[in-house]
Amino acid sequence: MTGKAILAFSGGLDTSVVVKYLQEQHNLDVVTVTIDVGQGDDQKKIAAKAKKLGVKRHYNIDARKEFVEKYIFPSIKANALYQKKYCLATALARPLIAEKVLEIAKKEKVTALAHGCSGKGNDQVRFDITLRAGSNLPIIAPIRDMNLDRTTELKFANKHGIKIDNVAKRFSIDQNLWGRAIEGGVLEDPFNEPPADAFIWVKTKNLSTKPSYLEIKFEKGVPVAVDGKVMQPINLIEYINKKAGAAGVGIVDHIEDRVVGIKSREVYETPAASCLIEAHSDLEKMVHTKHETKFKAIVDDEWSWLAYSGLWQDPLKSNLDAFIEESQSRVTGTVKIKMLQGSMRVVGRKSKYSLYSHDIATYGSESTFDQKLAKGFVELWGMQSTEANKLQKKR
Ligand code: ARG
Question: Which of 29, 34, 173, 279 is 20 to 30 A removed from 340 (C-alpha atoms)?
Answer without folding.
Answer: 173
